[in-house]
Amino acid sequence: MEENECRKQIAELSRKCKVHALNKSISRVKAEMSAEIKDFSRKYSFADSGTAERLKKLIDALPSGTVGFDFDKLPAHRKFSLQNADTRSQTVWFCSLVGGEEIFEIFVKGRLSDFLADYDDWYFYGAYMLLVYEDFGGFLYIDDNGNMTEVFLR
Q: What pTM was estimated for this model as a whole?
């Protein structure tokens, strides 16, 4: 076996090992979420791979700033506190913006009112939280102090 071919095989095995380890971590965190968040299976569900890819593209396309997002570069937004939140039964996708690599691969769907009611549990998985509306027309961004910014993308 040629040295170059051997290096390619080692690199491919290393990549597969990293993917396997990441998938194992993702499964572990999903199991923790399911067990630790009250009534998880009744209120929430995990995204399929197509929706996860769509959410990742949306997040990657958002303009970043020094802290979180550069909201001035987004079409329209409003700021308010968690106490003044509209708890309509809008369906959203939970996206964590901080944490280990595995948390960036996990997206959870549920009602906005449930995420806000369970905020302390979700805070553990994302002190900076992005709740993307199911229709992808906007999102809520919640910082580590519970301040909320609603952004309208359409």
A: 0.83
